[in-house]
Amino acid sequence: MAIRTDVVRIYRQVHTWTGILTGLILFVCFYAGALTMFKEPLERWITPPAAVTPATLDRAEDLVAATRALRPEVRDFTLAVEPALAGEAPLRLTWTEDRFDPAPWAATLAPDGSVAVEQLNPSGIGLLVDFLHRTVGIPGDLDIGTTVTGIASALYVVALVSGVIILLPSLVKDFLILRVTRNVKRLWLDAHNLLGLISLPFHLVIALSAVVFGLHDHIYDTLDRVVYGGQMRAVAAASSPFRTVSKDMGPAGMLPPKEFLTRVHSLAPGFQPVSLEYHDAGTGAATVRVWGHDPRYLVRREGFVLMGAVDGRIIDTEYMPGHQNGWSATVSAFFALHFGSFGGGIVRWSYFLLGLAGAALFYTGNLLWIESRRRTERQAKGRPAGSPVEQSRATRLLASGTVGVCLGCVAGLSLTIAAGKWLSGLVDDLHAWHWGVYYTVFLGACAWAFLRGASRAGVELLWASAAATAAIPATSLLGLVMPGLWVSDGLIGVDLVALAGALAFAAMARGAERRALSGPRDSVWAAAVERPKSEMGTQPLAHPAE
């Protein structure tokens, strides 16, 4: 396809600068986003086996009644039912007494019918990766972080469109080509283009949906003023399914939990319940949301049907897979395409790999820009092609920032996952320790990168990332022989994926070492060599890398 050279040049500049402005932000969002696909297995990998109390769904009614008798003030709680459906448990009632406290309370039923109530100490690794994915880790107000990622996602859409336009003239000739040669810049460019093209539909879906998620408050505020004249909340309240719920707060009995599941099965045989969420339990206004999923439909992470807890009537199915109207189904599909909450394990693994590939896309994009600056600097100084040139301070700082932020994120997440088993049972707030370990490693890596420079820090932080990731399967191995540690049953996949990641980072570290020693001496990735600046104009390159 023929496109004028000046048009391609303009789009290349747009693609370059939108990518540079958002690359580091999107790396963190994509890498953490890949881990969110398996945050539940990660939580279970860290949770000690003793934290699970076996029971069966047949005793769910006894657990609810005994807990209500012991804690009558608790009217809002959740009963997990998915494991109990297999007859294996855990059967546990959970609730929060303070919405600002992330540690929930839990009630379990002993064989003699007594109830044990304790405050849980969740690992919080799922909350951490989700927070990083949504806010790139900006501490403080959640709205600030989501707004930043929303703006970055909007620029990301521009980068995607401009990147496709750049590739159109050579798309047929260069499509799916990966030239492995001594020209490292060409290899990075081919890898960048290959990753971008084969995952383009995924990136477009993620980018567009992330714009909506990140800027939804601003979008709603605009709609409220422009479309609804300041009455959007009133319109939403008028269409809320809760408008038909009884206001009777007097005491009233509730149906057994199994009855709700039976009625839901009759309504939708393919719906798989995972939990019952009670509100105003023990009153005439009591309701139950039966949460679950149906792999046949595109829904948010889970859908639910709203039922009356006293009489079991169906109040609303607006969020239930297969029973939604056209608008609700469209909105749910939008969420599902972003979260990958459809299609079962195949889609989940695909999104995991595409998320990692997306992180690599932004990393290689920064590397390409940094490497191309040598030619730009050479042209600006009027030097002949192939002659060495001193890199600008801005280029060196971006190179250090790239390795510090990207590898700091990788090493921080790996180390805090591994630390979860070591700290479990030894600290009062494991959730806070997860965040502390991550931010300590992340900020330390950033400082180290600027202190040591990109070439040395790039190699050292890659080895650190490999070691931190290898600590995950190593911890499981030590669980076979060390008291206080354990092997998580059925979760060997966590260890195998971490082992593969550690080997990949080690291979990247070896490659970076070779590049530092044998690559062009005027590259920011070259090993530091003390030499007079007067030699910069005459020293030959180690090999042609452009």
From TrEMBL:
Q: Which Pfam families match?
A: PepSY_TM
Q: Which domain of life is it from?
A: Bacteria
> Which InterPro entries does this entry report, sorted A to Z?
PepSY-ass_TM
- Any idea which UniProt keywords this protein has? Membrane, Transmembrane, Transmembrane helix
For this entry, the protein name equals PepSY-associated TM helix domain-containing protein
Give TM regions.
20-38, 151-172, 193-215, 349-369, 397-420, 432-451, 463-485, 491-509
- Which PANTHER family does the record match to this protein? IRON-REGULATED INNER MEMBRANE PROTEIN (PTHR34219:SF9), IRON-REGULATED INNER MEMBRANE PROTEIN-RELATED (PTHR34219)
